[in-house]
């Protein structure tokens, strides 16, 4: 039931937002069109471990609806793990060589037109100046055939030893990746495509969706990635939270939620970066976020450091800067931060408001790690490294007391769209490979 008119609703919003303009309600125009048959094919591929080197890990292993399209832990175990979410354990018979260095991001609204930058460091980005209209650390000739930046994103996990590919001494995909054979005959993508094509149900479904396959062309890896992207875009559209109802003039907040909205769009400054209908400017900011785990580095490098956007641009102004995440369903998508160092949302809000103080007083119990070791916290144990992070912080300290933090968290919970977390299609009962579904 509409509790008051749109005009009254937006008058009230303008008052509490202290001069900030709130986004218009999300509409179909904000999203790219999706072919439902392509999405149905992508659903099977998303949950099928056939795309991992050892056939044990699917996209859904680290992006599962049970954990709001993430996995509920600070740093994932991909290849070499058994189980799901916080219950996942290391397989003693196939131990991973290295923990995945960054938190598994949620997948909500990635089919929206404004999502043109992928990953915490933005190393994949839609850019018409490049071949395939995509900029990435891979060769330009590898970027042909992807329907979108979301489609191109899928190529990275399957090529990662610790995420899906596995080690070179375990399977043909891992060996091809280790040798640098990605495209062309015998490359990792070709091997994965052959696996899929060898299954009659997949051949039939691809022929139904893609005319080139129906006309006799082999299934390409870009066909696989395009289907997965269509599924993600369709499955996890999130625009029916209480916040959306408020923007449409169909609902009201309680007093604490109103206070949190006023702080978020006002004196707390959250909306400076968390702007627009999906609450992200899609830019990169050094917020002094705590770093745990192995760090992000090349195989020949050592140390626990993750220098964020700097690794992409080489610009020292980008040191320790990471992409502003969308806040949709944030209540359900912890742990928070690029390394998942904070399990409690109120703790993370407090750390964002006063990052330097929290860098020097980090509580290790905030991390959710499978086998926490001292080396996981090496960066935070180093005064010099903490100081380097603190010096890079680009945001001002915001004085918030506990009632302020509680109010902001109450507002953030109005971004929870419970139906979107479950998804539109859900988990399939079986996949064409016959392998166990995560």
Provide a quick synopsis of the model.
The chain is mostly helical and 438 residues long. The protein is 35% helix and 3% strand.
Question: What would you say this structure looks like, in words?
Answer:
- It is a single chain.
- Helices cover 35% and strands 3% of the residues.
- The chain is built from 20 helices and 7 strands.
- It is globular.
Strand content: under 5%
Content-based structural category: mainly alpha
Number of strands: 7
Number of helices, where a helix is a run of at least 4 consecutive DSSP H or I residues: 20
Instruction: Round the mean pLDDT to the nearest integer and report it.
Output: 92
Order of helices and strands: HHHEEEEEHHHHHHHHHHEHEHHHHHH
The strand line-up of the biggest sheet is 3-4-5
Task: Outline the secondary-structure elements.
Layout: H1 6-16, H2 36-47, H3 59-62, E1 81-82, E2 89-90, E3 117-118, E4 124-126, E5 134-135, H4 149-153, H5 155-159, H6 161-165, H7 172-178, H8 188-197, H9 200-209, H10 211-214, H11 221-235, H12 242-247, H13 255-264, E6 284-285, H14 310-313, E7 322-323, H15 345-353, H16 355-359, H17 378-381, H18 383-392, H19 402-413, H20 418-422
Antiparallel strand pairs: 1-2, 3-4, 4-5, 6-7
Helix pairs in contact: 2-11, 7-8, 13-19, 15-19
Features:
438 residues; mainly alpha; 3-stranded antiparallel β-sheet; 20 helices; globular
């Amino acid at each position: 039931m509409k509790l008051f008119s749109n005009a009254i609703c937006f008058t009230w919003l303008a008052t509490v937002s202290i001069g900030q303009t709130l986004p218009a309600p999300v509409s179909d125009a904000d999203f790219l069109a999706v072919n439902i048959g392509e999405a149905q094919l992508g659903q099977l591929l998303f949950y099928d471990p056939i795309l991992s080197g050892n056939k044990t890990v699917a996209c859904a292993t680290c992006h599962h609806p049970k954990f709001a399209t993430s996995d509920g832990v600070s740093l994932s175990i991909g290849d070499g793990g058994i189980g799901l979410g916080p219950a996942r354990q290391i397989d003693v018979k196939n131990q991973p060589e290295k923990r995945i260095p960054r938190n598994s991001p949620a997948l909500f609204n990635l089919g929206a037109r404004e999502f043109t930058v992928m990953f915490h460091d933005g190393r994949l980005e839609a850019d018409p100046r490049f071949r395939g209209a995509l900029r990435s650390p891979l060769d330009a000739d590898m970027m042909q055939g992807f329907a979108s930046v979301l489609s191109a994103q899928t190529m990275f996990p399957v090529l990662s030893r610790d995420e899906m590919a596995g080690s070179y001494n375990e399977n043909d995909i891992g060996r091809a990746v280790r040798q640098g054979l990605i495209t062309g005959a015998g490359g990792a993508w070709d091997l994965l495509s052959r696996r899929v094509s060898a299954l009659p149900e997949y051949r039939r479904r691809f022929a139904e969706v893609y005319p080139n396959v129906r006309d006799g062309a082999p299934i390409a890896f870009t066909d696989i990635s395009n289907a997965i992207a269509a599924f993600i875009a369709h499955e996890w559209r999130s625009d029916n939270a209480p916040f959306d109802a408020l923007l449409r003039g169909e609902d009201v907040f309680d007093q604490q939620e109103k206070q949190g909205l006023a702080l978020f769009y006002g004196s707390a400054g959250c909306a400076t970066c968390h702007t627009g209908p999906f609450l992200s400017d899609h830019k990169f900011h050094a917020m002094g976020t705590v770093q745990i785990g192995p760090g992000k580095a090349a195989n020949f490098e050592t140390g626990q450091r993750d220098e964020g956007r700097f690794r992409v641009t080489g610009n020292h102004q980008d040191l320790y800067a990471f992409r502003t995440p969308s806040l949709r369903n944030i209540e359900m998508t912890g742990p928070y931060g690029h390394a998942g160092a904070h399990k409690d949302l109120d703790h993370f809000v407090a750390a964002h408001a006063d990052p330097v103080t929290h860098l020097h007083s980090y509580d290790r119990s905030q991390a959710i790690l499978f086998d926490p070791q001292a080396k996981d916290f090496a960066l935070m144990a180093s005064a010099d490294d903490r100081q380097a992070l603190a010096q890079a912080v680009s945001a001002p300290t915001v004085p918030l007391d506990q009632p302020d933090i509680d109010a902001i968290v109450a507002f953030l919970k109005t971004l929870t769209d419970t139906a979107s977390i479950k998804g539109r299609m859900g988990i399939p009962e079986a996949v064409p490979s016959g392998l166990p579904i995560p």
